[in-house]
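User: For a benchmark we're assembling, each entry needs the component sequences followed by a predicted structure for the full assembly. Here are entry 17's components. Please fill in the structure.
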Amino acid sequence: VHLVSIADISDAAERIRHAVVRTPLLPCPWADPSRPLWLKPENLQPIGAFKLRGATNAVARLDDSARKRGVVTYSSGNHAQAVAYAARAVGIQAHIVMPDVTPQIKIDRTREYGAQVVLVPIAERESAAEEIVEKTGRVLVPPFDHPDVIAGQGTAGLEIGSDLPNVELVLIPVSGGGLAAGIGTAIRALCPNATVFGVEPELAADAREGLLAGTLADWPIERRARTIADGLRSQPSELTFAHLRAVLDGIVTVSEEEIRSGMAVLVHKGRLVAEPSGAVALAAYLDHADELPAGRTVVVVSGGNVDPALLADVLGERDAGVPQ
Amino acid sequence: VHLVSIADISDAAERIRHAVVRTPLLPCPWADPSRPLWLKPENLQPIGAFKLRGATNAVARLDDSARKRGVVTYSSGNHAQAVAYAARAVGIQAHIVMPDVTPQIKIDRTREYGAQVVLVPIAERESAAEEIVEKTGRVLVPPFDHPDVIAGQGTAGLEIGSDLPNVELVLIPVSGGGLAAGIGTAIRALCPNATVFGVEPELAADAREGLLAGTLADWPIERRARTIADGLRSQPSELTFAHLRAVLDGIVTVSEEEIRSGMAVLVHKGRLVAEPSGAVALAAYLDHADELPAGRTVVVVSGGNVDPALLADVLGERDAGVPQ
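Assistant: Structure for entry 17:
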């Protein structure tokens, strides 16, 4: 397969510059001094997640004929909002297929961005999207399995490499692998001495199993759906897996309890609201230091679209227990 | 009195560039379309508040003799952390006088930054700081009543003017007035057509009363201390008041309930944790539209150092009620 290059990512950065937030790196004085920490707060993108980068790049690459026909995608949430937002920004129609277990907040927001939402059982989402493509001629913008999407997500890595050229470790959540593929590619090119780790929930660690085996692992969706991190229930495609093999030094897994604890630390010390998927990389930093190299570390906070009830639960349960 | 100029603010920006976060403007797709909204998230500074800008600028301006003697300040919290952090960053000693009603989290963090903390009754904080100056020769870095501090805070306004030159309304919390003085000065210079409003809690609206009367108003500290916004209990000095008269178009006041509601919206829609003082400007935008001009609006989120119990309380009470 053909891998996305740093030039593709630089081109994407120029293309999406006016539509996404150039997020800063946030230094964390509360972190372990032997492992200075910066957060990359992608939860602060207008739709609350990094997905806007890839969707905006993919939409910007459509030709006039495709723009007239509109776009379609399937997603557990953040990519849905990203495509809806990116399509509306340039005045084209969007059709979004979502699993019927998607948190209501993500469904509502996708509709608010003007997209037409179709709810289906989680296992049918890809086929339902393909059916719409056949019937309507709309163009599929996949959540991760496309070079334009990977290059768009990689722009976050370009920013990390530019803001902290001597970074030593980058921790990135892994689901379908588009974010880790893109950021990893950028870091490899810009910071050749840095180590790049993916992070997965223990309950959806298919990518880790695949990387160790050297071939894609396939976990049934019911198994992956156990994790609270609803944004990390996809698994890599051939394309993203080839990138992950090329750019990752390894994958660390975190427990459900560690994810919840990471969310609380982000709120209380980072002043950031993360969804569970957005807290896994910090959880790895906090609870798996022994599996990681020391040194200047960047943690990617990938998204912040969390149900208010879950957030209140996470904060309430550790109100007394979190160190200040 | 001599007012801080845009050149002073530009100089400060150069001086503090490597020590503070250049915060982005965050577009808010959930806002009123007729009043497009951007957040300026100063809660994401390493100490959790804008105060790092002014403190860093003031410390950078000390001569060698003053650096050897060290610095002292009094503060209800965020300025304390800012001076402690800024002093440690350049290796000088800091002594911080804090009111004994300061939230424990702010006391602990100030100590963590290596400063020596002295707790006194709130009415005695200025005299206690002056006593330390006399006894130890340390240099006082006041929380707002100093041109270097005002110029430092103004760098946030420089960034707003640079990122959104056609901004039409800027909303800034007002306590001692350093932040509003600095940002207002920058906006007046860079965006002459913009309107600049201060925001105060109804329960600590001394600056509004003073501006309407054309002379400083003096509210007893017991009266100002009623508000939940513990960072907004100071009142302007002659110096900051002269700036506020020159740069503000008015001051809007918000209720305690509106402040709590603003905090919840920042968490649920902005994915940002704000302390009560940091939420007043958004509260004005949300609940006082009829007192404000329409158009492109920037809300300054000034800080995020909130007690976990208060945050859990605010989120818990409106878990069911907040619109998604």
